[in-house]
(RS)-norcoclaurine 6-O-methyltransferase
Amino acid sequence: MPELSNKTCPEEELDGQALVWNQILSITDSLVLKCAIRLQIFDAIHRHGSAISLPSLAASLPTPCLRPTILLRLLRYLSHIRLINITNDEHPSFSLTPSSSAFLVTTSKQSLASFITIFLDEDFLAAFHALDVCVSGGEGEGSAFEMVTGETVFGQAARDPVLSHKFNEGMAESARITAAAMVEGAEKVFEGLRTMVDVGGGMGTVARVIRRRFPGIRILVLDLAHVVDGLVGSDGVEFVAGDMFVEVPQGDAVLLVRILHDWSDEKSLDILQKCKEAINPESGKLIIVDIIIDDDKDHELHHARVASDIMMMAYGGKERTEKEWRSLLLRAGFTRCNITRIKALQHVIEAWI
């Protein structure tokens, strides 16, 4: 067994050991978060309205808590990862942090609870256990999920209405955060537009946020039939069933929010070609909202952006560097682009023919 060099000082050895142990056990954070969401701990504290004692919290959970000492250990860990405040006294009380209050309470407009539930679903996590298969799986663009299940995430959602609903709810939740940051930090991108096509716009979450901020824009949401069936348009937002690989309706701008990261470069080029056909070459533009993984490595969200690329390796698709984005757009026939940073994982990329 290889040993540490004799030149390694005790401090370096301890740092190295801590680094490796922290990586081994980092999965604990995600699974404890999933457990807390399933037990509705954050919702229970929120409903109480103030700091709550352990007995009161145990009694207020939807599922009876028969082991309060185990609940206490869970709460201590949630405090350790800064998602719950805990008083240090003989009879501790618990309250939400700003982060858990904003993003983990199900009734919050910024809630990610549904996204967490679908992302940490046991069947979905199986793809992460097959990343090595994805690396050694030979030629092709197949994701780990596809190699494990025999179908893509989208294919499975298309034939499973329950999964489709959960998936769309989760995507809609995270989309709200992106959309809010987009209209706040990239306001000029939408100025002067009269019509816009939101390609792969799902339940219209992003479209409605944009419409509320820019009521002069009429937005057409394009998505597959099983996604938009039953959705009713209103207030300048309309829905149409279609396939972005076949045809994209015309508009002053075509919007792709977190779409291209789901696809390989070749598939993305097919999508971009259809978008280019829908845009007036003299006055129209393409708006992409997606992650640029190598932008500002000191940013608070840099780790999440890089980790998102591994998530896409598991589920299908890829995140891209700025150089890769510019190259992809140039190959698709877009001659220039502009990048705007917003307060979200994603960036806003404008492209013109």
Remarks:
- Strands lie at 52-53, 84-86, 93-96, 195-199, 218-223, 237-241, 253-257, 285-290, 336-341, 347-352.
- The chain has two domains: 10-104, 181-352.
- The mean pLDDT is 88.
